[in-house]
Specification:
The chain is α/β, with parallel strands linked by helices. It has two domains: 104 residues; 152 residues, 3-Layer(aba) Sandwich (Rossmann fold), CATH 3.40.50. The chain is 48% helix and 11% strand. It contains eleven helices and seven strands.
C-alpha cells in the first residue's frame, strides 16, 4: 500500500478485497508519506521479483507517473485506487482537483470540535460535575445501565457536547437539571426485564452474586418509577432504549436534537 499521506484509505480497500480470499495467505504492508521519486523506485525494487502487487493512493501526478513507469519496467502489477474516482469527479464537475496529499486528515475546525466534545463527555460523565449540565448541548439522564455513557460518546463523535446524570432514588438529582431548558434534556428508559438481565450480567462479570439488590426486580421497578417521576417533573423528551443498539438510540436522540434547534 503506497501513499503520499497516511495510507489508511489504500489499506482499508485492500483489506476489503483480501477478505474475499479466505486462505489468509495475503500480507499487507503499508508505505506511507511517499514524497519523492526515489522512494517510488525503492518500493518497486523491493516488490520486483516477489509475488505481490502495489496498490496506491498517490495524488501527485509526477509520483504516479514514476510509479507506473518503474512498475512496468520491473514487471510489477500496480493498482490505482484514487485516480479513477478523481478523474470521474473532475469530469462531472468540470473542475481540477487540488492534488494536495492528506486533505482528508487535515486538522480542521470540525476535528477540534469533535475532540472537544469527546473531552467534554469524559469530564462530565456520570454526574461527576453538575456544572456540565449548564454547559452541555444535551443532558442524558436515566437509571444505571441504560447506556448513558456510550450514548454520550457517540454524540461526541457527532460534535455534540453531552453530559449524563444517573438517577438514583437515594440521591437527589442536581438542581441544574431543573434549571436548563427541558428541550436540552433527554431521559432514557428501558423495560424492567431487560434491565434485570443487563444488571445480572454486570454483577456476574464483577464476580458478584446475581441475587444482589442492584439486580432485583423490586429495586429496578423502584428506580424506574423514580426516574419516570423526575423526567415528568422536568418535562423532557424520553426515549425507550429497550433492545436498541447505541446507534439506534443515538439516531432518535439526534433526530430530536436537530428538530428542537429549528
Amino acid at each position: 500500500m503506497l501513499s503520499d499521506s497516511v495510507g489508511e484509505t489504500a489499506e482499508q480497500v485492500a483489506k476489503a478485497a483480501v477478505s474475499q480470499f479466505n486462505n489468509g495467505s495475503v500480507e499487507i504492508k503499508r508505505v506511507p508519506y511517499v514524497d519523492s521519486t526515489s522512494d517510488i523506485r525503492d518500493v518497486v525494487e523491493e516488490a520486483a521479483g516477489q509475488n505481490c502487487i502495489i496498490a496506491y493512493t498517490l495524488v501527485l501526478p509526477e509520483l504516479r507517473e514514476t510509479l507506473v513507469e518503474e512498475a512496468k519496467r520491473n514487471n510489477v502489477i500496480v493498482v490505482d485506487i484514487m485516480g479513477p474516482i478523481i478523474n470521474a469527479l473532475g469530469g462531472i464537475t468540470n473542475k481540477l482537483p487540488t492534488m494536495e496529499p492528506g486533505l482528508v486528515h487535515r486538522l480542521d475546525d470540525e476535528y477540534f470540535r469533535r475532540v472537544e466534545a469527546i473531552e467534554f463527555a469524559v469530564k462530565y460523565d456520570d454526574g461527576k460535575d453538575p456544572r456540565g449540565i449548564t454547559r452541555a448541548d444535551l443532558v442524558i439522564i436515566g437509571v444505571s445501565r441504560t447506556s448513558k455513557t456510550p450514548l454520550c460518546m457517540y454524540l461526541a463523535n457527532k460534535r455534540i457536547k453531552a453530559a449524563n446524570v444517573p438517577l438514583v432514588p437515594e440521591v437527589s438529582p442536581p438542581e441544574e437539571i431543573f434549571q436548563v431548558p427541558a428541550k436540552k434534556v433527554v431521559g432514557l428508559t428501558v423495560s424492567p426485564h431487560q434491565l434485570n438481565i443487563i444488571r445480572t450480567e454486570r454483577l456476574r462479570t464483577l464476580g458478584l452474586t446475581s441475587h444482589a439488590d442492584y439486580a432485583s426486580m423490586e429495586r429496578i421497578l423502584k428506580e424506574l418509577e423514580y426516574a419516570e417521576n423526575i423526567m415528568k417533573k422536568i418535562g423532557c423528551k424520553t426515549i425507550d432504549a429497550t433492545n436498541k443498539a447505541v446507534e439506534e438510540t443515538a439516531s432518535k436522540v439526534l433526530e430530536y436534537y436537530y428538530r428542537s434547534k429549528r
